[in-house]
Amino acid sequence: LRLCSTRVAREGINKPLIDRIIRVDHAGEYGANRIYAGQMAVLGRSSVGPIIQQMWNQEKDHLIKFNELMVAYRVRPTVLLPFWNVAGFVLGAGSALLGKKGAMACTVAVEESISDHYNSQIRTLMEEDPEKYKELLQIIKQFRDDEREHHDIGLEHDAEAAPAYSVLKTAIQLGCKAAIFLSERI
C-alpha cells in the first residue's frame, strides 16, 4: 500500500512565480509571528496584550497554511529564516518598548506593507490565470483581509500617536520592502 502524498499535481503552473510567492509569503508570516512574539514578551501582560495575542493567533494560522503550501508545491524556504527569526523578534520587542503606541505603529507599518504586497501578488496571479491559481488566490485574499484588519486595529489603538510615528513607519516599511525583495530571491 502506498500512503497518499501531500503533494498535489501542479501541471501547467508557472513554477518560478509560485515558488517566489510561497517562499516570500512564508517568510513574511514567519517574520510576523516573530514580531508579535516580541511584542507579547514586552506587552503581554498589559491592557493591549489580548489584542496583540488575537492578531498573533491569526498570524500563526497563516504560517501553518504556508507551511502546508510549501510542502504541497515543493518550495524551499528562504535561507534567511534564521535572520528573520531574530530581526522580527527584535522589531516586535523594540517597538513594544516604546509602549502600546509604538507596538501599534509597528503593526500598522508592517501590515500595510504586507497587504500592499498581497495585492500585488493578487494582480499578478489574476493576469497569469485566475482559474489555475484559484486556491492560492483565495488564501492570499483572505490573509490580505486579515492583515488589513490588523492595520485598522493598530490605527484604532493610537498608532499614529507613537513618538516619531512617520519616521518609525517609514523605516519599518523600508525594512519590509528589503525583506520582501531578499526573501523572494534567496
UniProtKB/TrEMBL annotation:
Signal sequence, renumbered to the chain: none
Query: Is Metal-binding among this UniProt entry's keywords?
Result: yes
Q: Which UniProt keywords apply?
A: Iron, Membrane, Metal-binding, Monooxygenase, Oxidoreductase, Ubiquinone, Ubiquinone biosynthesis
Keyword Iron attributed: yes
Instruction: Cite the GO molecular-function annotations of the record.
Output: 3-demethoxyubiquinol 3-hydroxylase activity; metal ion binding
Coiled-coil parts of chain: none
Provide the GO biological process annotations.
determination of adult lifespan; regulation of gene expression; regulation of reactive oxygen species metabolic process; ubiquinone biosynthetic process
What InterPro entries does this protein's entry cite? Ferritin-like_SF, Ubq_synth_Coq7
Q: An example Gene Ontology cellular component term from the record?
A: nucleus
Q: Which domain of life is it from?
A: Eukaryota
Q: Which pathway does the UniProt entry assign to this protein?
A: Cofactor biosynthesis; ubiquinone biosynthesis
Q: Name one Pfam family in it.
A: COQ7
Which HAMAP family does this UniProt record tie to the protein?
A: COQ7 (MF_01658)
The name under which this protein is listed is Ubiquinone biosynthesis protein COQ7
